[in-house]
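G., the chain you wanted modeled:
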Amino acid sequence: MNEPHQETMPWYREISRYQWLVLIVASLGWVFDVFEGQIFVASMNEAMPALTPADAKQNIPLYTNITFAAFLFGGALGGVVFGILSDRLGRKRTLTYTILLYSLFTCLSAFASRWWEMAGYRFLVALGVGGEWAVASALVAEVFPQRARAWSQSIFHASSVLGTFLAVAAGIFVVANPRLSGALPLFGHELSLTGWRVGFLLGIVPSLLIIWIRVSLREPERWLKASRTVGEPRASVRQLFAGALLRRTLIGVGLASIGLATFWGTHIYGKDVLQQVYRQSTDEQNPEALKRVEMLGMFLVTTGGGLGLLSFGPICERLGRRGAFLFFHVGGLAASLAVFRQVSGMTAIAVLLPIFGFLTLGMHAGYAVYFPELFPTHLRSTGGGFCFNVGRILAAPILFLSGWMQTRLRMSMANAAASLSLLFALGVLLVLFAPETKGQDLPE
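Predicted structure as tokens:
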């Protein structure tokens, strides 16, 4: 029980310096995690045509979605494997493994010469990306007190927008920069250097974070206590489907699946609407100008999305976890239909895109808040990683479906994205069966 005076204090007043340090380090890991994912989104319109044979250019949308799917499958596998390792080996050690993995293979993506090589590298990058989230979210949940958990986890997940902003900056100043073209001598050969390849080379930078983690962090007391408990079973996926945990696991997987399916099927195309309207209204064909408008759209959607992620904490403290998920799923559906089917004109789209980003992305912070609250300490990283990353597997068919709708059914990008936004309605139904965890301590 909290003391009465604690309930009236701001949540951040009782946070120690070390707890802030944990939040900063975990957030930086997530920032770079998202950058490694979004650098492909920022450069796919340049990279995939360059990696696709001339006689298969008509299949670029399909190859792009296959590459996205490889990323989702890799993230799912990494989240499960590293989630289990985190519960067995500790949060600190496993966090360093995941960051090293995604940094190394993002850098190596710069050397891809075929589209399927890029897909393979994205799979390997995603192993670390999926694992990092599972470990970092469990770490923050176990270090922060109950009153501050929703706020701290929202800040942690909202830091992802900084990773997207870095990708936007790389898209504008690196990917679209013609002055970066040239030849790079490498092992007796010359690599044809372009902006998008330089963007992927930047992926090695996050590996420097490993040094700070090794020096400054320690294992949470909750994990140390659980690891010393005699007779405590070793973490395994099978335990997630036993007894009362079955319902919680299925709810978690369902929420993540809908969030990730609508992210890859609807949210990521918001940035392209502004470019399409600009192209139609001005008949602009200059690649640099079109890239700037595309990145502006990405910036507007990401800014709104970041505010949505930050807002999940205070919203769920007021409405409860279920109420917050309900708010964002209903809002996401309405905003998506407005952007893709109802609104036209540069000004109207530019105004609406931040709202679209707010409502279609905000519920993702709920996974960092809610999933650690569903599972006991010895399964917390395993459970959170399993729910979030199995959601990637179940969302992967959406990418194939989106590509098929656009290439085979000849649907426009906007119509395909609007159709897939109907998945938000399934989220509304799922929330009705979700347990409420507001105000409860983490299960031991």
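The CA atoms of residues 327 and 359 lie 8 Å apart.

Shout if anything looks off.
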